[in-house]
Amino acid sequence: MNAFIAIALSALAGWFGWRAWNESRVLAAARRHLLDDVSGLLGNLETAQLPTGYVKLSGTYRGLPAVIEPIVDTLNVRKLPVLWLMVTVPAPTTVRATFNLMMRASGLEVFSRYAQLDHAIDPPEGFPEWSGIRTDAPAALPPVEVVSRYLTRFHDGSGKELLISPKGVRMVVMVDQADRGGYLIFRDARFGAGRVSRELVQGVLDELHALRDDVIAQSTLEVVPK
What we know:
The protein is an alpha+beta fold. Helices cover 31% and strands 27% of the residues. The longest helix has 31 residues, at 2-32. Mean pLDDT is 83; it is low at 15-26 and 180-187.
């Protein structure tokens, strides 16, 4: 009888082990392919595997460099983990200040220098609720009317960060939130998103290009003698 129980327990342990291995394999494959539908947007494409298992894309879009990077955020212990997508156009601008808008800032946004910027600014009227703004030069911020054109994703709750700096522009948007059951039981950040849509990323890139053009045009106007 004891031998039978031992065999049954061994078989059960083996089944659980196989199931965990298979789920891990499926999860790893899903993470590798998250941006497959997006890669065709970029010229001169380069890929890099991240420690999280996701793939970071670098290349060019409409003549400017572009970087697309998935970020798993598990640091906010009061909320479920979130899968963010950080889209960056690292092409120099003519602005003299860093403008950083963050939604529901916790100080734990490891993907951002938001908390390190010296000056906190009250969001202007009409900016999204729960938004915060920090900068390194309050007197040199881009005009409110320019930035306001690019806040739709932040009003609808999908935007996390908007960055305008001398080095380029960036937007962070939400892709998915972790499965509640799996996270509460196993503390495992499993996301249901299959693949990020090409339309989403192309839309963000187009907005960043337009934003960059607008802030450059505005800063150029400011230095023209009157």
